[in-house]
Amino acid sequence: MKTKEELPECPVATTVSLIGSKWKLLIMRNLLTRPWRFNELKKDLDGISQKVLTDSLRSMEEDGIVTRTVYPEVPPRVEYALSELGESMHPILDAMLKWGTEYKNAL
User: Fold this and answer.
1) Alpha helix segments (H runs only) across the chain
2) What pTM, to 2 d.p., does this model score?
3) Residue 32: strand, helix, or coil
């Protein structure tokens, strides 16, 4: 997790630095519904590369937004889910969904 000194002073910039990329927002959108496995996310997020998905999940895990659970099975099963902190962003994503829907309807 980043320290206070590493984060921007502006709270909006802080939020954008944590979830501001296109892929992170779409990953979070998926994780709001249930835990997902890596390959499920890759298939669902059309156009994302394996490297970008890996880097985004690692970054979100380091920032405390996503949890990674490894199940001791053969072959190993890994699931990604929103942490409590990630779940707290639910209202933000709901507001984005509402605004985007209203915008598209207005066109």
Assistant:
1) 11-19, 22-31, 38-44, 50-62, 84-87, 90-106
2) 0.87
3) coil
